[in-house]
Write a structure and sequence with these properties.
Helix content: over 70%
Strand order of the largest sheet: 1-2
Order of helices and strands: HHHHHEHHHHHHHHEH
Number of helices: 14
Shape: globular
Number of strands: 2
Amino acid sequence: MRYMYHLLIFVPVAIAGELLHWDPLIVFATSALAVIPLAGLLGEGTEQLVVHTGPRAGGLLNATLGNAAELIIGIFALRAGLFDLVRASITGSIIGNLLLILGLSLLVGGLRHGRQRFDRRLAGVNSTQLMLATSALIIPSLFAISADSHHPLSIDALSMGVAVVMILIYILGVVFAFRQGSSTPAPEHSVQSNHAPWSVRRALLVLLIATVGIAGLSEILVGAVEPTIKALGISEFFLGIIIIPLVGNIAEHLVAVQVAAKNQMDLSLGVSVGSSLQIALFVAPALVFISLLFGPELTLVFNPFEVIALFATSVIAALVSVDGESNWLEGAQLLALYAIVALAFFFLR
């Protein structure tokens, strides 16, 4: 993944483009490319810090900072009033992890190793948790369709209540993993791939620099969203569903595919499914609470097509993992469904 850090050259380019008022499309593209290596540094800094904290504290760190880049981008989008973009990025992150990244992992791993096996019990637990998480996201949308549209306060209250419950479930899951002494798979991969771990000071410094950099570039990125949508003729949904999730998660995505190629499917599924769980149970409800700082509340009410896509994706991901085995054809099927969903959101207005 070291080659990805060459994209750091776009950090000063994006800043210069913002200050010199370049074409918004160029500003959006350069700021998006600049966020990618900073998100990678954020993940690597977290993993290196885990080397010093141990597996239990490391699991808590990864659970907290795993999707920090997406959370930061979401905060700036909320401040700009782009609520549809935020909801679309939540949906897109879950769908992208379960269809695009899991699909690529199964395809690459299956082509290289044939039939691959993983812990069926752990996959079953994650699948159940995923179904519960996506159901929690879907319920406010179904309520909004069924309830009287003249009572938006009930929808706001329901979204807030659901967010509270989701955060509690997320905390309980972290506590359970902490007491079991389980560690997240990412630190193990990091330790294996880095013979000379960073010092604590260096890891903290990288985390600080990456966080500040992502925050600054997120503001530039979000500021160029509306002009980019008009220039390209695409919808805000497509940008949020496809582009934004890739920007914030591509480093983590590459790890999932790389370890699948090494026949470490438990680790690969842990990255893709675990990231989806964190988005659904932590990032989404956290953004609901954070939105209160900027005025109107972010409700967890998605459009009907997003609801269908979320439900179908979680069901198919559960079916793929239910037997504890995978092959390249299953990966190709997941990728085909992702292409269909992306195409549908491209035409959605």
